[in-house]
Amino acid sequence: MPFGRRKELPSHLWTQCPDCGEMLFNKQLARNMNVCTKCEHHFKIGARERIEMLVDKGSFVEHDQLLTSGDPLGFTDSKPYPQRIEAARTKSGESDAVITGSARLGGVPVEIGVMDFEFIGGSMGSVVGEKLTRAAERALADHSPLLIVSASGGARMQEGTLALMQMAKIVAAVARLGEAGIPYVSILTDPTTGGVLASFGSLGDLVIAEPKALIGFSGARVTDQTIGERLPAGFQRAEFVRDHGFVDQVVPRAQLRERLAFFVGALRTTPGTEVRWSL
Amino acid sequence: MKDPIATIRSGATALGLRRASDGNGGHLPSDGLLIVDTSQVADRVSAWEAVKIARDLKRPHAMDVIERVFGKFEELHGDRSFRDDPAVVAGIAHLDGKPVVVVAQQKGSSTEENIQRNFGMPHPEGYRKAIRMYRLAERFHLPLVTLIDTPGAYPGPEAEERGQAEAIAKSIETLTRLRTPVVAIVLGEGGSGGALALGVADVVLALENAIYSVISPEGCAAILWRSSTEAERAAKALKLAGPDLLKLGIVDGLVPEPRGGAQTDHDATGRNVKSAIVAQLDRLSRVTMSEILAARYERFRRIGVFVEPLTAPPAPRRQWWKRVLGR
C-alpha cells in the first residue's frame, strides 16, 4: 500500500533519491546543490537556482522576461495550448522555458541562457528561440562569451514547424559568434534531447555535461519502440556520450562554476587583436 | 524600456503587442508558375490526405527528380570518415549546362529498395557527406540545391553512438553561413530535424502536396493523445501541409504538381521543379554574397510568433505597512 511509508516520511521534509533509494533530508539536499549525498545523483534543478549557482553573486540582469508565447496554430490536445502555457506559468512562476540575461562569471561579463525542464518539459518554441537568439546577438554586439545551459525534451510540438525553425534561428546566431571569435559554451543537463541537442546544444566550442545526464537525439523510448533493440548499458548518458566523442567533459555540479570560469577566462578574446598569446 | 529600436522597427501596434512573423506567407515574387500567394491555394486535400500523398511509394523520389531536372548527374560517395550512406544521394550536376552541387535524401519505391535506402532515414554519416558537399559547393562557387524527403533522421543506437544530433546540428550550422546560393525543395516528407539539416536555404520551396513537420503525426498522437490511432487528428493540428506552411512562412513557395498529384506524372513534376530551381538560382545570381547571407539570416530570424508587451506589468502593491514604513 502506498500510504504507510509516506506518512512516516512527509514529502516536504524528505526526498528519496531515485538512483540509490536513500532518503535525503531536503535542507541537506539543497545545501549540497541538489546532489544526492550518498550516490551523487544530480537532481534536476530550476533555472533560477542554476543561475544563482553559476554566476557571480548579484551580477545577473535578466533580459526579455516579458516575452510570452502566442498560439500560432490554434493547437488543442487534451487542453488548448494557451491554457497549457498558463498552467505552466502558474506552476513555475516563469514566462517560458528559458531565462536569459547578462552576468559575470569569475569577473568576466557573459551572456547566459538557462532552460527550465519544469516548463512543459523545457520544450523549445518561439519564445525560447527568440530569447536565445537575442542572447547570442547581445553576445556578438558586446563581444562577450555565451553560455547556454540546456534541459529540454526538444522542440515544442504545439508550435509545429515554427518550433522546428527555432533550431535554425538559434544556430544561425550562434554560428556568427564562431566567425567573430567569441566563445560559446554549451552545458548539457538532465535531460537534453531532440531538437535542442540537434542544434545549439551540440555546437558549443566546448560542450560540458553533468554526470549521468540523459543526452540523446531520440528518446530511449522512441529508439526502443522504433528499432526494437535492447540498448547498451549507460546508453545516452553523459559519460557514454563523452566516451563516443561528443562531449568534452563531464563535470560534477559542485565544480561546474569554477570550471566554466576557467574556460571563459582562457577563451576570452579581445576585439580587434589577432595575436592573443605572448609570454 | 530597453531596446526601443526593436520596438520601432517592428511597427508596434496600439495594443502594445508585436509578433515576429505576421503570417502573411511567402515574400517571393511569383515567376508565373510558383504558388506564393496563399489565396491561390485552396485546401483541396485534408492534412491526413496530404500525409498519405507525401508518403506514396509511387511519388517521384529524389533520383526520379534529379534525372528529370539535371542534364547530367555524377554521384559522389562517402563522408571520408565512416562510410557512404545510401539514404543521402549527392553529387555534381548540370542545370541547363551549368554545374551545381545537389544533395538529396533518397527513399525507395519498393520494399527492397527502401531497405537498401533505410527508408530515406539518414545516419550521421549521411549528414556528414552532405556537409562535405556543401563545402565543395562553397569552395568552387557552385550553387547548392537540396532535395528533402525523409521521415526523419534514423533513431537507432548506432546513429546515437556516432552522434546523430551533432551531425544534424553541424549540417544546419554549415548551411547558415555557406557562401554560395542555396535552394531547398521538400519533395515529399519533411521529417523534423532530419529534414531541416538540408533545409536551411535562401529559398525554401515545397511540392504542393509535400508535408513538413516538427514530429510525425503518429509520434505526436502517441505523446499528446497517448494513442497512435489519433494520427489523423494530430496531422490536422500540426499544420504540416503545403498551404499552412506557406501561410506560416516556413516555405517561400509551392511548386505545383500535375493534376492528381506528382505520382501520376513524374515528367511534368520534374519540369515544374526544374523551372522553379532555375528561376530562383537566376534571381539569386544577381545578388552579392554578403546580401545573400544577410537575407538568409533574416529569413530564419523572423520566424516565430510571440507576444512582447512594451511595458512591464505594474508591480504588485506592497503591503500597507511596508509602504508606510518606506521599506
Write the layout of secondary structure elements.
The complex is a heterodimer of chains A (279) and B (327).
Chain A lengths: L2 H6 L5 E3 L6 E3 H6 L15 H8 L6 E3 L4 E2 L11 H12 L5 E8 L2 E8 L10 H17 L3 E7 L7 H21 L3 E10 H4 L8 E4 L5 E2 L3 H8 L10 H6 L5 E2 L2 H14 L13
Parallel strand pairs in A: 6-7, 7-8, 8-9, 8-10, 9-11
Antiparallel strand pairs in A: 1-2, 3-5, 5-6
Helix pairs in contact in A: 5-6
Chain B lengths: L3 H6 L37 H8 L7 H8 L2 E5 L11 E8 L2 E8 L5 H6 L7 H16 L4 E7 L6 H5 L2 H13 L5 E10 H5 L6 E5 L3 E3 L3 H8 L6 H8 L3 H7 L4 E3 L10 H19 L4 H13 L4 E2 L12 H6 L2
Parallel strand pairs in B: 3-4, 4-5, 5-6, 5-7, 6-8
Antiparallel strand pairs in B: 1-2, 2-3
Helix pairs in contact in B: 3-12, 5-7, 9-10
What does this structure look like?
The complex is a heterodimer of chains A (279) and B (327). Chain A is of the alpha/beta class. Chain A has two domains: 8-43, no CATH class; 45-266, 2-enoyl-CoA Hydratase, Chain A, domain 1. Chain A is 37% helix and 19% strand. Chain A is built from ten helices and eleven strands. Chain A has helices spanning 3-8, 26-31, 47-54, 81-92, 126-142, 160-180, 194-197, 220-227, 238-243, 253-266, and strands at 14-16, 23-25, 61-63, 68-69, 98-105, 108-115, 146-152, 184-193, 206-209, 215-216, 249-250. In chain A, the strands form two sheets. In chain A, strands 3, 5, 6, 7, 8, 9, 10 and 11 form an eight-stranded mixed sheet that branches. Chain A has a two-stranded antiparallel ribbon with strand order 1-2. In chain A, strand 6, helix 5 and strand 7 (146-152) form a beta-alpha-beta unit. In chain A, helix 5 packs parallel to helix 6 (160-180). Chain A is globular and about 60 Å long. The relative contact order of chain A is 0.11. The model of chain A is unreliable at 1-7 (pLDDT under 50). In chain B, strands 1, 2, 3, 4, 5, 6, 7 and 8 form an eight-stranded mixed sheet that branches. Chain B has 14 helices and nine strands. Chain B has 327 residues and is an alpha/beta fold. Chain B has one domain (4-325): 2-enoyl-CoA Hydratase, Chain A, domain 1. In chain B, helix 3 (62-69) crosses helix 12 (266-284), helix 5 (124-139) runs parallel beside helix 7 and helix 9 packs across helix 10. Chain B is 39% helix and 16% strand. In chain B, strand 5 (182-191), helix 8 (192-196) and strand 6 form a beta-alpha-beta unit. At the A-B interface, strand 4, helix 5, helix 6, helix 7 and helix 8 of A face helix 6, helix 7, helix 8, helix 9 and helix 13 of B.
